[in-house]
Amino acid sequence: MQVPATFEYERADSVPHALELLEHYGPEARVVAGGHSLIPMMKLRLAQPEALIDINGLADELGGIAVEGDELAIGAMVRHTELLESATATDLFPIFRDAERVIADPIVRNRGTVGGSLCQGDPSEDLSAVFAALRATAVIQGPGGTRTVPVREFHQGPYETAVEPNELLIQLRVPVAPGTGSAYEKVERRVGDWPVAAAGAVLRIEGGTIVQAGIGLTAVGAAHFCAPEAEAYLDGRVPDAEAFAQAGRIAAEHCEPHADQRGPADYKRHLAAELTRRALARAAGRI
Amino acid sequence: MRITVSVNGQSYTRDVEPRLLLVHFLRDELDLTGTHWGCDTSNCGVCTVRLDGVPVKSCTVLAVMADGHEVTTVEGLERDGELDAVQKGFVECHGLQCGFCTPGMLLTARALLDRHPDPDESQIREAISGQLCRCTGYENIVRSIRWAATSDVAESATEAK
Ligand SMILES: Cc1cc2nc3c(=O)[nH]c(=O)nc-3n(C[C@H](O)[C@H](O)[C@H](O)COP(=O)(O)OP(=O)(O)OC[C@H]3O[C@@H](n4cnc5c(N)ncnc54)[C@H](O)[C@@H]3O)c2cc1C
Ligand code: FES
Ligand code: FES
Fold first, then answer.
1. CA separation for the pair B161, B151 (Å, rounded)
2. Which residue among A3, A42, A108 sits closest to B42, beta carbon to beta carbon?
3. Which of A133, A229, A277, B92 lies 20 to 30 angstroms, CA to CA, from B73?
């Protein structure tokens, strides 16, 4: 039987209250959202926070999916299921539907949150690649107010993010532009598993050429979950099969996959190339 | 910490440690052993209960997180001595052998039918994809849930008359 070590439990009733509690308990306190990464880690004693600040009561302040101006705003406490079922999000960006359908299983998705996924900073997290491909911005609130960090600078290493111990991730903001297509491709060993490798693509095409490409990669050791060299290659090109295959090869060259129980490194590198190619082709077909 | 949880419509107040998991609260504090406990790693789904109507894996929820909320366990499916249609379906279609996975399957099935009264096979398979059955295989479980859907529809048609 797995039992977490003891901790103090506090329930936040507002964002300022959560920040006060974080300040009060100091760096050994942790926020708990869906708890589907943190509680398993606590059960294995891989995490032993002295205090847990429960933010599940902040669904109003930290929830919601809405278009605001030329951005799509997604609250940190939005659960996977809600994002999957949001027509607003998935009509604009089908990449969310592609990815959410294959993140964990429906029951885990009922609980796990978008913010928790990003803050966990697992090198195999699917949504980290999705938001990197979308060039989203993270809104972070601390004692001094709010600040924004591009998702491409959010992850500073495995399980390390730009969110300081006394801060909360509040929201993700995704730029919305006409002429955009998006898609996500993942290979997993069995339904509901973490990816062996996965790639997301976001393409903006104007007058028959690519004006911006976003490529997100997860589980293959891509720095910041993206592939800037492959994106630069695609800039200004005609979106065709040859360009997508070459972009896939470039993306694969720049990752650093590690062998583990999900597969050897060369297989993951092969997947990075192939899944990038497929995601780009599918994204282009959706414009 | 003192918590009050409504389980199957009845309110329970207990003093618990914050680290107590919901599955153990239900089984050990309330003696509701219908909720099973298997992998302990949020994979197998035998511990599934409904929290405010939503299926969750209770081995990965703290009991204190259910404070002030409503939980439904397999014991709450039956009404006035009458089994729920999903329970009848599992009886009719041989939806279980050892029964270990069954409580979780039943609750997920009920939650699915509450939202989608007439699911097709792929929707059923998707809904139960976070749960493992080591005996029956999924064929009869899917059939049992389809049976329940048909029975629910027939029942509401009768009520409408
Ligand atoms: C069986 C299983 C299978 C899974 N499969 C996949 C998969 O295939 N792909 C995938 O990508 N993920 C998968 N996951 C992980 C899951 O999708 C998320 O990682 C998990 O739900 C994290 O979200 P959470 O809300 O549960 O976070 P929590 O566990 O509550 O928190 C995770 C971390 O983030 C911090 N945190 C949470 N919210 C905030 C916030 N707003 N501000 C600051 N810090 C915060 C917490 O303090 C903690 O350190 C799986 C999980 C399980 C249990
Ligand atoms: S015991 Fe909870 S998922 Fe297996
Ligand atoms: S009936 Fe035995 S595990 Fe499903």
1. 16
2. A108
3. B92
Question: A164 and A212 share a domain?
Answer: no
| CATH number for the domain harbouring residue B137 | 1.10.150.120
A246/A37 Cα distance (integer angstroms): 36
At B140 the pLDDT is 97
- Rounded Cα–Cα distance for residues A134 and A7 (Å): 37
In short, whether B90's Cβ falls inside 6 Å of ligand 3 is no
Distance (Å) from the alpha carbon of B109 to chain A's nearest alpha carbon: 12
Same domain, A171 and A187: no
A228 lines ligand 1 (CB under 6 A): no
Chosen domain end from B76, B105, B131: B76
Contacts of B126 in chain A (CB under 8 A): 106
**Is pTM, for the whole model, over 0.95?**
yes
Over residues A245-274, the mean pLDDT reads 97
| Burial of residue A60, with CB atoms counted within 10 A of its CB: 0-12 exposed, 13-18 middle, 19 or more buried | exposed
Task: Count Cβ atoms below 10 Å from residue A279 Cβ, excluding itself.
Answer: 32
Contact with chain B for residue A213, Cβ under 8 A = no
Residue B136 pLDDT greater than 90, yes or no = no
ipTM of this complex: 0.95
